[in-house]
Amino acid sequence: MSEGWTFPDRDNVHRTLGVRTVELSPTRVVLELDVTSRVHQPFGILHGGVSALLAEGAASLGATLSVAPEHVCVGTELNISHLRPLSEGVLRALATPVRQGRTVQVWSIELTDDQQRLIATARCSLQVVNAPVSQNSAPRLGRSQGC
After folding, report:
1. DSSP assignment string, 50-87
2. pTM for the full predicted model
3. pLDDT digit string, tens, across residues 94-127
4. CA gap 96, 30 in Å, rounded
């Protein structure tokens, strides 16, 4: 994990689905999710929306780590190609930047199973925006005290 960074301690979709952070830096993010029946579509395989959620989540975390603390990065476009079905095991998302600009970032994401087979590929475009300041807004990743 990237030293000096902390996650907001509140409920969110990653926590609800049990997403695990394996690696976290401004240029590489790895997230994992156990594929069980709770993330299946009606035909017993991984729901494509869950793959998309993991892909955009990985890109958003890495992109936000790469910008100044007063900013966050939010997804503006996600393109995903589902290549192979998955009904159980571990889904892993590896996100790396294609371009990290001042106002827009583009990330490439590969989603693989626990046998390193490619399940899906994705590209995510993100906009750099001001971090929310409202108490009701979701908190961003932040630097821990003393860093």
Report:
1. HHHHHHHHHHHHHHHHTS-TTEEEEEEEEEEEE-S---
2. 0.86
3. 999 999 999 999 999 999 999 999 999 999 999 9
4. 9
Report DSSP state, residue 38: G
Residues 38, 105: Cα–Cα separation, whole Å: 32
- Comparing 141 with 71, the larger pLDDT belongs to 71
Domains of the chain and any CATH numbers: 5-133 (3.10.129.10)
User: In whole numbers, what is the pLDDT of the chain averaged over residues?
Assistant: 89
Quickly state the pLDDT bin for 133 (edges 50, 70, 90): confident
**Count of H helices and E strands in the chain?**
2, 8
Q: What is the pLDDT of residues 37-63, one digit of tens each?
A: 999 999 999 999 999 999 999 999 999
Q: Give catalytic residue positions.
A: 56
What distance in Å separates the CA atoms of residue 45 and residue 37, rounded to the nearest whole number?
Answer: 8
Q: Report the C-alpha gap between 11 and 137 in whole angstroms.
A: 13
d(CA 6, CA 8): 7
Do 79 and 51 touch, CB atoms closer than 8 A?
no
